[in-house]
Design goal:
The chain is built from nine helices and no strands. The protein is an all-alpha fold. It starts with a helix and ends with a helix. The structure holds zinc ion.
């Protein structure tokens, strides 16, 4: 039964991943995410249902458009697959519960932030603001049926969001454009979602992750030493880790200090 549920939720994840790709393609261009229907970017041919089966259509057509044979971005495949895998992990971790819905929402939100910032170096307000609204709604009330999710009280959320925002606001001014305003708002959102003090865990995890990847890319000669990397993807990944295991990591760390 449980396996069946995980498989069904993973399949749902593949479909949702396909929709996330539409959001990732269209939000940075301020296009509608519902209209027009999916079409090939190269030949504008409207895609049929058989072209839109997540992951399988891409593999079946060897990553090319059925009509004009233009290469389809590999990202479409990876986002679909990753969303399916993440949904499976969440279903396994939370079971059928309200917490699963909330965490699936955050996973979608942070996946969109991750990929758009990676591809365009921006973090659209249209993604961050709805996230802030949901985080605030979760913080405003105790939601007794939502015990498995990290949901700070309103004071903790306000403190986490406020401190994170203020800290990155100062960094953005001091770095004169090195840190973008999108990152400032994103940390505000992460602070609202994780609260105080977990917002610091997200920031530290994001910085460590970014540092490791930056060094690895230099070693692999994929990046010059002074080239900047977008910070958003690392913050987004760190936020998901914090929402999933933040309290465990914090108590493990405090245990080390004792
Ligand atoms: Zn085409």
């Amino acid at each position: 039964m449980e396996i069946l549920f995980i498989v069904v939720f993973a399949l749902l994840g593949l479909v949702v991943g396909s929709f996330l790709n539409v959001c990732i393609d269209r939000l940075p261009q301020s296009k509608s995410i519902v209209f027009p229907p999916s079409h090939c970017e190269a030949c504008q041919h409207k895609l049929a249902a058989k072209d839109l089966i997540p992951v399988f259509s891409y593999l079946r057509l060897c990553g090319r458009c059925r009509y004009c044979k233009a290469a389809v971005p590999r990202r479409l495949f990876w986002v679909e697959l990753a969303t399916g895998v993440v949904f499976a992990l969440l279903a396994w971790h939370y079971g059928l519960s309200p917490a699963l819905g909330v965490m699936a929402f955050y996973a979608c939100l942070f996946t969109i932030v991750f990929v758009i910032d990676l591809e365009h170096g921006i973090i659209p307000n249209k993604v961050v603001y709805p996230g802030m609204v949901v985080a605030l709604l979760l913080a405003l009330y105790s939601w007794p049926w939502l015990t498995q999710v990290i949901k700070p009280g309103i004071a903790s959320a306000a403190l986490g969001g406020g401190i994170g925002f203020a800290l990155f606001f100062l960094i953005a001014i001091a770095s004169r454009g090195g840190m973008g305003w999108g990152d400032v708002k994103l940390v505000g959102l992460i602070g609202l979602a994780t609260g105080f003090p977990l917002v610091f865990l997200s920031i530290i995890l994001g910085a460590v992750l970014g540092g490791i990847v930056a060094v690895a890319l230099v070693i692999a000669k994929k990046r010059k030493f002074k080239e900047t990397l977008p910070f958003g993807p690392f913050l987004a990944a760190a936020a998901m880790v914090t929402l999933l295991w933040g309290n465990n990591i914090l108590s493990w760390y405090l245990g080390l200090l004792m």
